[in-house]
Amino acid sequence: MTSPSALAAPPSWPASAWALLLTMAVLLVGGLTWRRPAFPNGAPRLLKGWPVIGSAGFFRSRSDFLRDGKAKSPGGQFSFYYGAHPIVAVSGPSARSSFYTTRGLDLGAGFAALFASAPKVDHLYDGDLTADFTVLVKRFLNKNRLEANLHHLTTDTDVALRKISTLSAVEPFDLMIGLVYQLTHRTLGSNDVAADPGLLAETLAIYGRMDASSAIEIMFPGLPTPNKLKRIWGGAKLHWVFQKIMDDRRKTGRTEPDAMQAMMDQGDSDVVISSVIIGALFAGLVNSGFNAAWILCFLSDDAHWYAEMRAEVDAVVSRHRLSADETAADILPRLSMAEWETEFPLIDLGLRDSIRVITPGASIRKNISRKDIKIGDTGWVIPNNAFAVYAMHDVHMDDRLYENPTRWDPGRYLPGREEDKKAPHAYVGWGSGLHPCLGMRFAKLEITISTAMFLAYYDFRRCDKHGNDTTEPLPSISRNAIGAKRPVTNVFLKCSPRF
Ligand code: HEM
């Protein structure tokens, strides 16, 4: 038997430490392997991955991993493990239809388990966060609320655009991500944050630090990984900021016509309110901010669509002008919601194709139906309790549907081409089937406003970081990322005022 003094003796410590580590590793491997459910016979062929961690490529280079796996597998369907999670990767038209339309394939459960880059608040919350979030987002994004809030969107955009320096190069991603964050607070968050540049910057920075999802955290959901601790800390810090605002409102009796107040008035707890706001801001940031900026980049690279969309905006401005001395800044904020939604069809197509081109990654579901689910007519199944993933590129980059698919080309949706209608669920950029995006109306509204006002206020062209003209092609898009990203190198724009 080892005596206590022997344990304390310096030479024996490294050996004991190694033994302890080894034991932990064996327990971890054993535990994981033991917990891994086996794929039943009807599941697609299992792709062999690493022991314990499984197929790390799903995390490191998702698009390549799913493309290669499809190419190597009979019928394009395959199974793999990611840590303890059994996952079936589906592809092709028939599999896509069943992925998007089968009840029992749950979006929230898939997202919760295989995504880990949002601030984490669920440890504070004992209800069904996903279900509550969905109900509240639907409530706050209805037409009347959006309409009542419209003046904030145009005023905030006006203020942000007027701050643009016409002397130096403008980096569109910081500009648009900051603006979208502010507009999302106006609509689904707190006016106190939206109106305070300091609070906006402080809280936006917390999301910025959360950009990277952690492979280890997803593989080993029980471990307190640094990423998980960072997300918990981020969620807590955001909650404290929002709680302070709510306390102040209660103490002073001050009210605001915003989502935070509406939830306070109906008696939601502070944690529910923070959780909904944090989730909504995250949904806005990961998609809307990037698209708002990418559209400007694509326009700066495409003289035809730049001229067409600028003319569309100018025609709207002329149509609504009441006197000769009015500028676009006087006219555009007067537009009603219906006018914003119907008078900019080309900007809408620009956004549609931006989403198709820049959104990498995969849609995720979990089979919670308690039985195996058939993958279309492929003959394979998604086993009960397994996850299913569908890579967006499988359809969006299919050159049998989309001509020259990596090119941004809003004209591909116009009558005569209508490439997105060539097959069922051929466009999944706003979701499809059972899970259309619940934020689409708001996202379209804010991106139409930011793009139209940018085109109305400035002429712009690509430049380098010193403001000199450049003919360099647009930098490429990180297709292997898990969500939308900035370009791999910075893009800059030189802006000249139009009035
Ligand atoms: C350009 C901006 C946006 C794009 C491209 C986008 C895209 C999508 C897509 C593709 C899905 C379906 C995901 C899947 O099938 O796995 C989705 C779902 C969803 N989106 Fe968006 N989204 C955007 C903005 C927003 C905003 C601002 C919100 C507001 C909070 C939001 C809230 C949601 C919600 C709650 C769902 C889940 C719907 C469900 O569970 O059925 N989205 N979105």
Automatic annotation (TrEMBL):
This protein's record includes keyword Transferase: yes
Annotated transmembrane regions: 15-34, 271-296
Pfam families the UniProt entry points to: p450
Gene3D superfamilies membership: Cytochrome P450 (1.10.630.10)
InterPro entries registered for this protein in UniProt: CYP450_sterol_14alpha_dmase, Cyt_P450, Cyt_P450_E_grp-IV, Cyt_P450_sf
Positions that bind heme: C437
Top-rank taxon, per record: Eukaryota
GO biological process: methylation
Endpoints of the signal sequence: none
PANTHER family linked: 24-HYDROXYCHOLESTEROL 7-ALPHA-HYDROXYLASE, CYTOCHROME P450 FAMILY 7
Protein name: Obtusifoliol 14-alpha demethylase
